[in-house]
Amino acid sequence: MKEYNIVITGVGGQGVLTAANILGWAALHAGYKVRLGEVHGMSQRFGSVISYVRFGEDVYGSMVPEGKADVMLSFEPVEALRYVNYLKEGGMIVVNTKPIVPVQVSMGMASYPSLEEIRKVFEKDFKAKWIGFNAEELAEQAGHVVTTNTVLIGALTQIPEFPLDAEHVREVIKISVPPKAVDINMKAFDLGIKAAKEILEL
Amino acid sequence: MAKVSDIVLWDKPGERVLLLGNQAIARGALEANIAVYAAYPGTPSSELTDTMAIVSKKAGVYMEYSTNEKVAFETALAAAWSGLRAMTAMKHVGLNVAADTFMSAVGMGVEGGFVIMVADDPSMWSSQNEQDTRVYAKFANVPVLEPISPHEAKEMTKYAFELSEKFKHFVILRTTTRTSHARGDVVLGELPEEIKQGKRKFGKFKKDSSRFVDVPSNARKFHPQILEKIEKIREELNNCPFNWIEGKEDAKIGIIAPGLSYAYVKEALAWLGIEDVKILKLGTPFPVPYGLLEKFFEGLERVLIVEELEPVVEEQVKTWAFDKKLNIEIKGKELVPRIYEMTTRRAVTAIAKFLGLETPINFEELDEKYEKVKPLLPPRPPSLCPACPHRNSFYAIKKATGGKAIYPSDIGCYTLGLLPPLKTVDTTVAMGASIGIAHGLSIAQNGSLSEEQQGPEKQVVVATIGDSTFYHTGLPALANAIYNRSNVLIVVLDNLVTAMTGDQPNPSTGETPHGMGKRIPIEDVAKAMGADFVAVVDPYDIKATYETVKKAIEVEGVSVIVSRQVCALHRIGQMRRRGEKWPIYYVNEDKCTGCRICINAYGCPAIYWDEEKRQARVEPTMCWGCGGCAQVCPFGAFEPMKEGEQ
Q: Where does B37-91 have alpha helices with state H?
């Protein structure tokens, strides 16, 4: 495989960097050349964030160019839409449908689009395959809302032709979370796998 | 995945690991047997210093968080003068702070290797300007090395120490956000015995007043020596392992790719499917080695320089080609933008245009499609965290001054007080500038208290500055304002850490990474300097903060309020690690009148508007339990949940 490109989007503080790091280590263990690109500092304070994960035999820069992402993993629907131009034609979007409303919207300075509107842009205008579900709810089911990113990573491993083995990714998560959080993260991972499978089989 | 602190110290040569560019540089410094490291944090350089902080004790390296870049530079420089390998790191604007020492000390050179890591931030992801450090390097006649990947960053760090030691000259290791904050596969090298044993190294300073005292008679000798050194280094760099020529040997088309641009050029060429081209990969954008240029230009008819930001390489190459009377077309900034960061798209577009080809993706079409998405997108700028004590300080200041004061502010998280609804930041220029600007505003509008004349009406000026910034460059400005009888209020937003760059300690924290330093309370400094009014408040008590601000603005002279409450992000992080809980607030629906004060005046990101019920709501996953909302709400609608309700 020459290269595989993932963009991860969300709101600062949601665990976007952690998710990228987990996928990066899984790719490294699988023997690929790896590049991750991330933004630190002020942008992390509840602002919009994007991280890049690239691996394969020929990987150079740390940023995925527009129109070249095989898949987008998004922690928040509007933050998925903000970076829709990164997806390649026929790409996939795995998205947590639970919104985080920006202060500007609450103040009445801007409005938040409906989930249907967002989905339409992905499916109609950008010809992407939409895998959307409330990952936060599943994380709570697993035991804690902080496992939302584990749920989403679980779902990601199920998309067609995903080059990393789900069990491989699971092992990395196991050793990257605190020992007492392993069980709920494994549960969250499985719930994510299940959610994606259900949607993909429809 | 193992802990970074373990990986950076792993005695496993040949092991492949995933490291952040900055962490890879730390490993490189250890592999180079560094002895002293000093820096002030600044995005995107901070993780290098943070990594050194966590490994230094085990590696026997002296490491400190200095109060600013200039003193950090001096600390490391003196160690290099004493024959030790030493390093300092900063962001691009940090070099401006260190510049006075930097420019003057270059002529004195060093004994041990001295590496200055400077992290540039093209596109200004977390910065106040977009300066190109390579211009500084050229200005100071100091060689600059620029890596293409985390692994090369590590290797280059070792080389930088060797180069510095060989020529007894300064060396800059320049990264950008995309190398400092890129993670990549890194192959670990050997660690020196001394690092493995954690043995601290000590040097010896040999006095030489003809070298270390830059009186004019000495400085006059330095300048020609510097110029001689840099030309010798230019010669040396012909054999630098980070410079090479690749591609088709007899190609007519050549591309020069300095630093990270090489990565984008390689990707662009692969994407375009172009092989009939020769590439000059340049790890040393200054000085460009002429011997390598000579070899590269052989047989070429056209050359494109794909370079990020300023035409530093382009000017050197064009000057060289002109002097050589070469009749070769050389293009650069005509096709490659001079602003913002390099991307693969930019490289593809420039190369395609240079060769008269189509780009592999029709980017204009993609842009047009995306233009239609934009109106749907609500803005989401970064914001002050939930429970951020600065929000309360700003809220109290605004209320006490009726929004009519001028509010100079500074560099830090609290610059976000600029955004609605708080809007209590009118100016932000550079570290420590808020106090200097406040003083200037006071002089311009009211006159000085030391003059007898006063302006027609008192314009209240309230400056805000963080604790770390206060110690960074606020101190001389405060002395100046007090000495010159300014009439201002300075509120020091003391959250006891350098929060924006990742919770590094500073004199207000007192603790260092290695144990207790000595804490310097800001109020003691203000009193000792002779401020006319000094008070300490807890911003979580909004009313008391408001009343203190009210009192302070009535005082003639310089007032200093220290608004002290630990950074919420820092506090919550520690509580999470300890498994502790905090109170979560909710809106009592019977009491909320929908007045929106909590949203339109206070603006906590955990509070949102429920359109259906026309009431405020708290997002429980975002509430960090400060209770500020309960103090702000006139109807007492915010209440803490009881245990078990969460």
A: 46-59, 69-81
